[in-house]
Amino acid sequence: MALNDITLRSLKPDAKPYRKSDGGGLFIEVRPTGSKLWRLAYRFDGKQKLLAFGQYPDVSLARAREKRQEAKALLADGIDPTAKAKADKQERLAVSEHTFRKIAAELIDKLRKEGKAETTLSKKEWLFDMANRDFGDRPIREIDAPMILATLRKVEAAGNYESAKRLRSTIGQVFRYAVATARASNDPTYALRGALIAPTVKHMAAATSRDDFKAVVQAIWAYDSGAPATRAALKLLALLYPRPGELRLALWPEFDLESKVWTIPTARAKMRREHVKPLSPLAVEILKLLKAETGSESRVFPSSIARDKPISENTLNQALRRMGFEKDQHTSHGFRASASSLLNESGLWHEDAIEAELGHIGSNEVRRAYHRARYWDERVRMADWWASQITQFAQA
């Protein structure tokens, strides 16, 4: 017997759910909570299925019957109404939920959980902000290559060719993640390869001849301006030649001054693996003096402006500028090239020992462990020899 609104309104909840049919597979299900839910029973490919139409009275009797007819029309065309409803829901989500901004934020969260360095994530977030300003709130499926190119051209027009290149790559990372999670069908940045002006590769300026590097060391040891953390960081860059970010962000628990070892944690090491470096007696002495001067309990190189933050790379480079070294002569990152050049030039050390000390030895776990074990003693001797060279340069 067909239902009517009077009957529907009079239906009362019972201890168990019960149903009242309207015919043609359409029925209302009354729950113990009092909710009244529209359902359509139908068969597709020989299987019994149920399709939900919503709750009465939000979905009226007339609308429920319209939905029944729409479902019957789909069945007549060989289409499963449940599959169609799911596809429609995904399409709605693609418009309202699956925006570039939300998927980019989700990717950042995934990378953070995977242990990517905060400096790396900050750079990605900065690049995402550029993209978000233009199309962050658009559904990712609606974003195409011309739309992305228009954003890249803005960055390129300002002369920031390297940033434009990185932005294209980072946007592509979001699309590939969206494809992998079934929210996009392709990566439109692939079609943009070759569309941008290729940036000129610029290597970090470094003093790589013995005389030039001696001049840098002499200037650093004679430098009496700036904060203690800045002066100590410059000396340790010369002695240990780590990446500037690895040094600037260092925390005291990473240093075992008794054992003369510095352990750079995975989260901060560029190669995403723990990197252990031997400390020469001179490096230990500098660290002990620094701790006595700063009194810091956590950061080795605290900023003089905000003690809970580290000194910046710009602080180190500006100190080099004040010593008279232009940015095309030597930089804080250049100490790595200086050490690599002079250590290899000496002919005293195995090239793999030098590469291991620089943190370059390959990605294979067995190979890394082999090189660390085989060359550790040589790296300790090399650290002491290098410190003696630095001392000679400083006193010359």
From TrEMBL:
Name the SUPFAM superfamilies on file. Answer: DNA breaking-rejoining enzymes
Start and end residues of each Tyr recombinase domain: 203-383
KW Magnesium (keyword) present: no
| A Pfam family the protein falls into | Arm-DNA-bind_3
Keywords, ordered alphabetically: DNA integration, DNA recombination, DNA-binding
Determine if DNA-binding is one of this entry's keywords: yes
Q: Tell me which Gene3D superfamilies the record gives.
A: 1.10.150.130, Integrase, DNA-binding domain (3.30.160.390), Intergrase catalytic core (1.10.443.10)
Q: Which residues form a coiled coil?
A: none
The family database entries (InterPro entries) matched by this protein are listed as: DNA_brk_join_enz, Integrase-like_cat_sf, Integrase_catalytic, Integrase_DNA-bd_sf, Integrase_DNA_bind_dom, Integrase_recombinase_N, Phage_int_M, Phage_Integrase
> What family is this protein classified in?
Belongs to the 'phage' integrase family.
Q: What is this protein called?
A: Integrase
Taxonomy of origin reads: Bacteria, Pseudomonadati, Pseudomonadota, Alphaproteobacteria, Hyphomonadales
